[in-house]
Design goal:
Elements (H helix, E strand, L loop, with lengths): L1 E9 L8 H12 L3 E5 L4 E6 H17 L4 E10 L2 H4 L3
Antiparallel strand pairs: 1-3, 1-4, 2-3
């Protein structure tokens, strides 16, 4: 199964990326995920379910430790089937 995670961390600072946003970016960029897209108002990453869930755990823990006061998160299943059967 493949998952896509979309997330934002707050509080926002349009002048300079806050520490929690930098940490969140580092987590998803270091994870073995596909199609990572980091932007000023939202971030997405896609990969195998186990990889995405591991990254989400690290993202939540490390971003909160770095000062995030809110993390909005959405996870969607983007692919299943014969190909994904071996990925569980």
């Amino acid at each position: 199964m493949r998952l896509r995670v979309e997330f934002t961390t707050e509080p926002f600072d349009l002048d300079e990326a806050p520490a929690h946003a930098v940490v969140a970016r580092e987590v998803v960029e270091a994870a073995e995920l596909d199609a990572v897209d980091v932007g000023p108002f939202g971030n997405t990453a896609e990969g195998r379910a186990d990889q995405v869930l591991t990254a989400v755990d690290a993202l939540l823990r490390r971003s909160l430790e770095a000062g995030a006061t809110r993390i909005s998160l959405q996870v969607n299943v983007v692919g299943e089937g014969a190909e994904a059967e071996g990925e569980r």
